[in-house]
Prior knowledge:
This protein is of the alpha/beta class.
Amino acid sequence: xxxxxxxxxxxxxxxxxxxxxxxxxxxxxxxxxxxxxxxxxxxxxxxxxxxxxxxxxxxxxxxxxxxxxxxxxxxxxxxxxxxxxxxxxxxxxxxxxxxxxxxxxxxxxxxxxxxxxxxxxxxxxxxxxxxxxxxxxxxxxxxxxxxxxxxxxxxxxxxxxxxxxxxxxxxxxxxxxxxxxxxxxxxxxxxxxxxxxxxxxxxxxxxxxxxxxxxxxxxxxxxxxxxxxxxxxxxxxxxxxxxxxxxxxxxxxxxxxxxxxxxxxxxxxxxxxxxxxxxxxxxxxxxxxxxxxxxxxxxxxxxxxxxxxxxxxxxxxxxxxxxxxxxxxxxxxxxxxxxxxxxxxxxxxxxxxxxxxxxxxxxxxxxxxxxxxxxxxxxxxxxxxx
Length: 386
């Protein structure tokens, strides 16, 4: 067997079990599973030759493979709650070696850190590959005053003199480890069986990226951060699917004495749909409601509509298959909880600005406009910009 040497491998341990957040590594932040976010960060980092996910879970393995990672199935004896990440990395290195792949440098990424800074990761890889360091870890600069509790409940200052409160510019900063990534020489890691050894350096990352998900509250915070930091820019998809009520309308209705229903729509949404149609980008309206107003609006827009649909996920899967469009290349625009199942299967789940909180959490993009007030136009312009 021919051995390929000198590789830099990103290794992402991702167990299926988690007590605080069930199926944590598959939870979505910004519409993307955590394990896939780590894979994308590694793949985008210059200097990394191979992205590997070590897992004991079939679903994580499938998501990882679809995202372009090499999957190594982790044995049960190193997959429990007490198993260390080091054991998973050593096992992965051995499996790669058995397949003829010898790694000189390892980038250990944690999927529970959803905002891995690619630029800092690349710099850390360069530091180790060029022999400027043996191990490098991500951290952010802090001027925080640290304390610990004493034996009798009193407070003891750790990194400062409590009797002297200097100005920020007069203080020495410290760096807090984020847990997002560690880069080290493979031979030194095999010898020490630890991520810190030899000449250790800090890779400084932006403080906002430092969140690590260990509980549901941190997951909600990460989703909110993703909506702020990742909701701008073009949306590169091949098709748009939207809900109707609360997306094309402002989610209100006027009922006349005979029970007839009138809704308010946006003319600029209509112009946006016309532009999308001219560009040849397919669009579908998918609605739970069985209402003549839905079909009338769809006919006015010259857009196909499926209404009276209780199972939006199945209907969306069927439409995508019939039109030969991968789900990853579809943007789904929703506003309420009946859109969640459909949003979870597409590459670009999008929410209107006034969507239900659960929809906002699932969205990869949160638009600046509300339903019925140009949200559809905003999405279309960002798709056409791509």
